[in-house]
Specification:
Elements (H helix, E strand, L loop, with lengths): L1 H26 L1 H19 L11 H12 L3 H34 L1 H14 L8 H7 L3 H26 L3 H9 L4 H39 L4 H10 L3 H29 L7
Length: 274
């Protein structure tokens, strides 16, 4: 009983320390200090009119305009929704087509020999180079923007899955075959789980490229979205609107990355403790 009481007391003493450690890790005070320092440096550079900042809006002006003209503006929040929809559709189509294609490249030699040269010919073409072609090919601007967004993530996910399949140790496959495992069982039990980390990497890289591409496409071929909002700020020589658009894009990309990270943790539960 005395030993049990000592253990309970020790647990009570260590519990606050454990909770404090978790709170410190969650809040990340260093990150807050860095962000505050960034905005302070930005403000001082604008006030002192340092080279490159003479015509730039300072953070106070940006916040004032945002609170006055954009917090209750439905068109602004609709720009968020529009850009998110385009990113989501392009990203999902890239996963649905890219993952099977990468698996086929990695598992079927004849299929790879036939189609991989064409894939390698198209892969170096930058996504934005597809903009004129997609505008001519697709019937609406919306479908062309989604296609360009799809292109941004598609090649990345295919290459990552293909490399993931090639990195599987052949000894594992030979051992499974020698033990009588069927090819479907090998694919489901060995190959697919081994490729999951590569899929996760492709998703992380793909979501970032997707936002880059969709913003550029909105500036060129759209009249809506966060990219168009940013472009309008530039065209109208309104630096406050330009900065609001840029910060909005950064926040949208950050939120998307966080969602992808949650999906990755669900896909790879063995890494949750890392």
């Amino acid at each position: 009983m005395k030993k049990l009481a000592r253990l309970l007391n020790a647990g009570k003493k260590s519990w606050p320390k454990t909770m404090l450690k978790k709170i410190k890790l969650t809040l990340n005070w260093r990150g807050f200090i860095a962000i505050f320092g960034f905005f302070l440096s930005w403000y001082l550079a604008c006030i002192l009119k340092l080279p490159g900042f003479a015509e730039m809006a300072n953070p106070v002006e940006v916040i004032q305009m945002f609170a006055k003209d954009y917090v209750h503006d439905g068109h602004y929040w609709l720009s968020w929704v529009t850009s998110f929809q385009r990113v989501l559709l392009g990203f999902l189509f890239a996963q649905l087509l890219g993952i099977p294609l990468g698996l086929f490249f990695g598992t079927n030699d004849r299929f790879r020999e036939l189609f991989f040269p064409v894939f390698e010919l198209l892969r170096p073409i930058p996504p934005l180079a597809w903009v004129p072609m997609s505008i001519l090919f697709w019937p609406t601007n919306e479908s062309s923007i989604i296609f360009i967004t799809f292109i941004g993530a598609f090649f990345i996910i295919v290459i990552n899955v293909f490399d993931g399949v090639r990195s599987i140790k052949r000894e594992h496959l030979w051992l499974a075959l020698s033990l009588g495992a069927s090819r479907p069982a090998i694919f489901l039990r060995i190959m697919l789980p081994s490729v999951i980390p590569s899929i996760a990497v492709g998703m992380t890289l793909g979501i970032a490229i997707t936002w880059d591409v969709v913003i550029a496409a909105e500036m060129i071929a759209s009249d809506s979205g966060l990219g168009r909002l940013t472009w309008e700020g530039y065209v109208s020589s309104t630096p406050e609107v330009l900065v609001i658009g840029m910060i909005s894009i950064g926040l949208a990309g950050y939120l998307s990355t966080k969602v992808v990270n949650v999906i990755e943790r669900k896909m790879m539960p063995w890494r949750r403790s890392a």
